[in-house]
Write a structure and sequence with these properties.
heterodimer, A: alpha+beta, Phosphoribosyl-aminoimidazole Synthetase, Chain A, domain 2, 60s Ribosomal Protein L30, Chain: A, seven-stranded mixed sheet, globular, disordered N terminus, B: alpha/beta, Rossmann fold
């Protein structure tokens, strides 16, 4: 159907754009045809730019939405489901809701690590406070190439400083995260930032626009030429020429963000706001079109009224600019003064740039001349944006991985050398070089600063509740087997929340993959979605939203490991149920909950000690894992254990060491017969948790465990500092800790 | 006791200190907005942590010129109690209310972690009730906390007992290893010669609530109340 458009004189005189220009902007020939059909004429350059960014992968999810729709979104706690708002909204009970989301800033960070990462932090926090929630915790998930390469060190240092400088000044604690190194990330580092905020149920603001004649405001920073075509840039492979795209990277100003946060939350309280959305990817055009489409209205905008940083900006530049720290607000007509007073108080720009119309079109004027006229609905996801079914094909490596047999790997005689290797590996060792650069204690609510814990736990002030947060994805597992690997990522996140004494309630995801037009890459994507669906259904943790980042791939080195980062939210109804991961006292009994398996597949041990990369994902049984979590919750509730720590990267030995180090304690354990010692100690079979039990509670502990189906075994006891396995001395906590604590410092400097 | 907590636009620890003073210590607290000249008759002014006006130039360099600071400077000159924590300490040095300056940390990085503090004197409002032999575990979170003053100034401060806290190890030993940021003589907190203006880089308000599993900072607030109300 051809939609009728008034074709103003001025537009006719604007030069119609050509197919070549469309291609240069990243549009396909059939997309160009579709635009002509929608407009009933050939678009001019400004309009073509609008479609190119709104239909880019970044904004339209055109190559992923078909599969994203298959993810479980329903749940009794869902107040805003995936895709409905800027971030997911989950009911925590007692009138309190948590708004949380994770987002990638991979491509900007690959070129300009400091600003790329900083603006990633800014963007994700705006997604939270644009809904009326005050952020109370930030996390991040970072992946880099070989840490010994100078370029990767430059990237890591820049990214960490960027996250720190922005998040610290913004004043919200960074409470958790992950850091992983593998050569597959040499060209494309991954920088995923997550934020969680708290809001009273019923006091949120929607990203919508309606009410003919209501004024449309732009508030916050002035608009400059930074970040133009950033969304389109994020939808391309990284090449050597990408450095020429540098102006596509935005520049952040955390002080402005802090002002915007306070002003935004204050303006919501006036009750004068109809709808609000932050300016993220694709700038003004994105918020105009998404809000208008949602509210089923149009807008008439005077682009020359937008406060600008520089002179002579062209209409397309104003529309597409990704200048940071800006919001679009639609206000009830007649209440302008109340709104303007708030922004005056915080010394922020606040300008009316247009008004709401009933045309459902976005009409842009520059110096009173119409420069673009497009229907809002046709620009957006779920409206007219293209949707593609991509071809996918199982890659050859998958079957090769399945041929792996543990018997082909010689069992090392010297277990201490393996332990020493793992303790000193950057993927295992302490990440304090990074985390010390983030303010984790501002807000006086981070409960896990002085309590080692598998998840970050942040109290919700004014209530007895706390939220537990974690980000998890072992991308080596996902590469080995996308479906199983992604299910493991969800299970590990749930395990971390459960070990912390929380109840898993929902997830957000950041799906980092290579080029979706490569069938083998798309196969990884499809597999990951299937695995996430299975596990999220099992754990009753709906997917509240997130972000897809394709094209994490270089022309020379191919795609990164498929990395579907899972950000999970858990709730503690009472902060007193918090469970810590550290051993408490010499003589306490150490138990393993879950089953020991003769498995070393995809472990850090196999990958870096034996240098074997072809193996399947580690052992994983979703049903048993789920059952184990339920038992663990009961143990915590009945106060039968004094610590709980999950077995993850590095296997049981590293889990024990991590529990031992905080209080300078050790362990003496016996291995299990019938299982190779290296598999027992360093294998990464899933579904296991190390707990410690006071001797006087041993009987009650066993009694409870015996009534469950979950396997458990006595490993040994907590010692004063010796680390012993089957009477063999593998080290002391003092020596191991001094290595573990300083691995990154040794490589990266003070 | 009536406290006034200043909010500069980039303050981000104002609510934290308000929470401790009002909810934990049960005191009356007034919020003082940076654009105002009114100190609302408070007994003590607290300058909280944060990034006052963005602090892209030098931490606190702009804040000292703000309207509220003109009143705070007046208030201090008349003997009024003023305490600056972290960014507040930086603002006090910029305003010349306490000696010295806070440089970039020696490792040029922001540092957030628990450190230990040894109270150096009981002869001040904020340390009066502290055990001089007990190291306090208190978090720091700053990029510019490297205390510096000219040698003669430090000598004079030491002679006048103006050093309030020194970084130490968990046993209270003041060592080079326990100095997190390169501060001269491990100095973590000082007062002015008139002993009514106090500055410290560590955040006692982040260690004053059982929910955080660390209440080592409480003694500082208890000292203030005991001495001021005595």
């Amino acid at each position: 159907m051809i939609k009728h458009s008034k074709i103003p004189q001025k537009l006719e005189t604007n030069q119609p754009a050509s197919l070549e220009t469309a291609k240069e902007l990243g549009l396909l020939p059939e997309e160009f045809d579709k635009i002509k059909e929608i407009l009933g004429r050939t678009p001019n350059f400004t309009e073509l730019s609008i479609f190119s960014v709104m239909w880019s992968e970044h904004c339209s999810y055109k190559n992923s939405i078909v599969w994203l729709k298959t993810l479980p979104k329903e749940g009794p706690r869902m107040l805003a489901k995936a895709g409905e708002e800027n971030a997911g909204l989950v009911d925590l009970g007692d009138g309190i809701a948590c708004c949380f989301k994770i987002e990638s800033h991979n491509h900007p960070s690959a070129l300009e690590p400091y600003q790329g990462a900083a603006t990633g932090v800014g963007g994700i926090n705006r997604d939270i406070f644009t809904m009326g929630a005050r952020p109370i915790a930030q996390l991040n998930s970072l992946r880099f190439g070989d840490i010994h390469q100078a370029r990767n060190q430059w990237l890591l240092k820049g990214v960490v400083k960027g996250i720190g400088d922005y998040g610290n000044a913004f004043g919200i604690p960074t409470v958790g995260g992950e850091l992983f190194f593998d050569e597959c990330y040499n060209v494309n580092p991954l920088v995923n930032a997550m934020s969680a905020g708290i809001v009273n149920v019923g006091e949120t603001v929607s990203a919508t626009s309606y009410g003919v004649g209501n004024p449309v405001y732009i508030v916050g920073s002035a608009t400059g030429k930074d970040g133009i075509h950033g969304a389109a840039f994020a939808s391309k492979d990284i090449t050597e020429d990408s450095v020429n795209d540098l102006p596509a990277v935005q520049v952040g100003d955390p002080f402005q963000e802090k002002l915007l946060l306070e002003a935004t939350l204050e303006v919501i309280k006036t009750g004068a706001v109809v709808g609000m959305q932050d300016m993220g990817a694709a700038g003004i055009i994105c918020s105009n079109s998404e809000m208008s489409a949602k509210g089923e209205h149009g807008m008439r905008i005077d682009l020359d009224k937008v406060p600008m940083r520089q002179e002579n900006m062209k209409p397309f530049e104003i529309l597409l600019s990704e200048s940071q720290e800006r919001m679009l607000i639609v206000v009830k007509k007649g209440r302008e003064k109340e709104v303007e007073a708030v922004f005056e108080k915080w010394d922020l720009n606040c300008a009316i740039i247009g008004e709401v119309t009933d045309t459902k079109r976005l009409e842009y004027y520059m110096n009173s001349q119409l420069v673009a006229d497009v229907p809002a609905e046709d620009l957006v996801l779920g409206g007219g944006a293209p949707v593609y079914h991509r071809e996918y094909r199982e890659p050859a490596y998958y079957k090769e991985n399945l041929k792996f047999n543990i018997d082909q790997v010689a069992e090392p005689k010297d277990l201490k050398s393996v332990a020493d290797h793992l303790i000193a590996h950057p993927n295992i060792a302490s990440k304090r070089w990074v985390t010390d650069q983030y303010d984790s204690t501002v807000g006086t609510a981070t409960m896990t600063t002085n309590r080692p814990c598998d998840a970050a736990v942040v109290s919700v002030k004014g209530t007895d509740k706390a939220i537990a947060l974690t980000v998890d994805c072992n991308s080596r597992y996902v590469y080995a087997d996308p479906q199983k690997g992604c299910a493991i990522a969800v299970a590990e996140a749930a395990r971390n929340i459960t070990c912390a004494g929380g109840e898993p309630v929902a997830i957000t995801n950041c799906l980092n993959f290579g080029n979706p037009y490569v069938p083998e890459v798309y196969w990884q994507f499809v597999g990951a979605i299937k695995g996430m669906s299975e596990a999220c259904t099992k754990f009753q943790t709906p997917v509240t939203g997130g972000n897809v980042s394709f094209y994490n791939q270089s022309s020379d080195e191919g795609p990164v490991f498929p990395t579907p980062t899972i950000g999970m939210l858990g709730v503690l109804d009472d902060t007193k149920t918090l469970m810590t991961a550290d051993f408490k006292a010499e003589g306490d009994l150490i138990y393993l909950i879950g089953e020991s398996v003769n498995d070393i597949a995809s472990s850090q041990y196999l990958a870096s000690y034996h240098n074997i990369s072809a193996s399947p994902a580690p052992h994983f049984d979703l049903d048993k894992e789920y059952a184990m979590h339920q038992v663990l919750k009961q143990l915590i509730r009945e106060q039968l254990i004094v610590s709980a720590h999950d077995v993850a990267d590095g296997g049981l030995y590293i889990a024990l060491l991590e529990s031992a180090m905080p209080n300078q304690l050790g362990f003496a354990i016996e291995s299990e017969e019938g299982i190779r010692k290296d598999a027992f100690l360093f294998g990464e079979a899933q579904g296991r948790v190390v707990v410690s039990v006071k001797p006087e509670q041993q009987e009650a502990f066993i009694e409870l465990m015996a009534t469950s189906e979950t396997e458990f075994s006595l490993l040994g006891t907590v010692t004063s500092g010796d680390l012993k396995v089957d009477e063999e001395h593998l080290g002391t906590v003092k020596a191991s800790k001094s290595v573990y604590q300083n691995v990154l410092h040794e490589i990266l400097g003070a | 006791m009536k406290f006034g907590v200043v909010t500069f636009p980039g303050s981000n620890c104002d609510q934290d200190i308000i929470d401790v003073l009002s909810k934990i210590m049960g005191q009356q607290v007034e919020n003082l907005w940076h654009k105002n000249h009114d100190l609302k008759g408070v007994d003590m002014v607290i300058l909280p942590g944060g990034f006052s006006y963005g602090d892209y130039l030098r931490s606190g360099a702009i804040a000292r010129f703000s309207p509220v600071m003109q009143e705070v400077i007046q208030f201090a000159s008349k003997g009024g109690y003023v305490m600056g924590i972290c960014n507040g300490f930086q603002i006090l040095t910029e305003a010349g209310l306490v000696p010295g300056a806070l440089l970039h940390n020696a490792n040029r990085k922001f540092i957030c972690r628990n450190v230990y503090l040894k109270p150096a004197t009981s002869h001040s409002l904020i340390t009066s009730d502290l055990d001089l032999n007990k190291a306090l575990k208190i978090p720091i979170a700053h990029g510019e906390g490297n205390y510096f003053a000219r040698p003669d100034v430090v000598k004079e401060m030491e002679d006048r007992d103006q050093i309030l806290f020194r970084y130490c190890d968990e046993h209270g030993n003041v060592t080079a290893e326990s100095n997190p940021n390169g501060s001269l003589a491990n100095i973590a907190g000082v007062c002015n010669a008139g002993r009514n203006v106090f500055g410290m880089m560590p955040h006692p308000e982040r260690a004053a609530d059982p929910i955080l599993a660390n209440e080592d900072g409480l003694g500082i607030f208890e000292s203030i109340l005991k001495t001021a109300l005595a």
